[in-house]
Predict the 3D structure of the following.
Amino acid sequence: MFITILKQIVEEVPGAQGAILMGFDGIAVAEFSIENSSTDMLLLTVEYANALKEIRKSSSVLEIGEMEEVVVSTDRFTIILRALTDEYFCALLLSCDAQLGKGRYVLHREQYQLCSAVA
């Protein structure tokens, strides 16, 4: 079920390279990548899981609200990291020329389906 949802997200967003559902502990639940993707989605997301834990902790200490989404842009990729629950997040990897807005919209739209699946 998870892979079906992730595949739908990737296929709906032009320029998407892959999506992964992961726990904040860095353990992947499911992953879908396009066939010619040259990036190790798992390795990339494990590294960002640690950063997300720190951002969540800082948000809590500063009392600015719960972290919902983090976007990291580099010269090659953009990665959207969206918190789903207290335990899980989803990451969407986009090429640098992908439609960021559509990626954010589709990930937000499918958030409820992913939350239901991990519950």
The two ends are 13 Å apart (CA to CA). Residues 7-87+97-118 form a domain with the Beta-Lactamase fold (CATH 3.30.450.30). The chain has three helices and five strands.
